[in-house]
């Protein structure tokens, strides 16, 4: 079957890998410097890609499929929240944009990890800068679409697998 559990998750893995490789390849040519929120979104794509790869290689039975769909839904929702927050920052009036913060490398050297994650998720002024757009969508806009697509697919597959319960052993008679 073309859209088997394994093939679908390998396609999600390849899509996440393609998004990450594109960002890494384009970044130096477009003189883009990713902000902490961009790096967090990349980390979420890594997590989604890793989950999809593990799920595809594992190719579990129905219960395991539900677990993978649920995990991917939660991770995609987290990525969508981060991308949505960055889009919100990008649309703030200039006088309401928060001050720029230190770079991610500096934050990792100086602050505890959980504080770095909190600062990266909330964003700074440099996260409000639109460095590139296509068809009116900035990079976090495209990331939001990707997270929403993966999340929606995971939700649909989860609901489908929950509806496909094993036939009842009860007989009517």
What descriptors fit this protein?
6 helices, 173 residues, mainly alpha, elongated, two-stranded antiparallel ribbon
Structural summary, described in words:
With 173 residues, the chain is mostly helical. 69% of the residues lie in helices and 2% in strands. The chain contains six helices and two strands; from the N terminus they run αααααββα. β1 (133-134) and β2 (137-138) form a beta hairpin. α1 (5-29) packs antiparallel against α2, α2 (36-58) runs antiparallel to α3 and α3 (62-90) packs antiparallel against α6 (139-163). The chain starts with a helix and ends in a 10-residue tail after the last helix.
Indicate the topology.
Elements: H1 5-29, H2 36-58, H3 62-90, H4 104-110, H5 113-122, E1 133-134, E2 137-138, H6 139-163
Provide the succession of SSEs. HHHHHEEH
The parts where pLDDT drops under 50 for at least 5 residues are: none
SS-based class = mainly alpha
- CA radius of gyration is 19 Å
Please give the number of β-strands: 2
Order of strands side by side in the largest beta sheet?
1-2
């Amino acid at each position: 079957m073309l859209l088997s559990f394994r093939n679908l998750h390998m396609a999600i893995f390849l899509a996440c890998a393609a998004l990450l490789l594109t960002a890494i390849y384009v970044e130096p040519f477009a003189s883009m410097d990713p902000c902490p929120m961009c790096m967090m979104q990349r980390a979420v794509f890594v997590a989604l890609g890793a989950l999809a790869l593990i799920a595809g290689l594992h190719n579990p039975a129905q219960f395991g499929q539900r677990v993978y769909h649920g995990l991917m839904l939660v991770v995609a929702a987290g990525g969508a929240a981060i991308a949505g927050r960055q889009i919100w920052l990008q649309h703030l009036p200039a006088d309401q944009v928060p001050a720029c913060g230190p770079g991610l490398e500096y934050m990792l050297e100086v602050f505890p990890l959980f504080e770095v994650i909190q600062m990266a998720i909330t964003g700074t002024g440099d996260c409000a800068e639109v460095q590139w757009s296509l068809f009116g969508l900035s990079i976090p806009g495209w990331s939001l679409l990707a997270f929403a697509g993966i999340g929606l697919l995971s939700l649909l597959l989860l609901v489908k697998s929950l509806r496909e319960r094993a036939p009842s052993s009860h007989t009517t008679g």
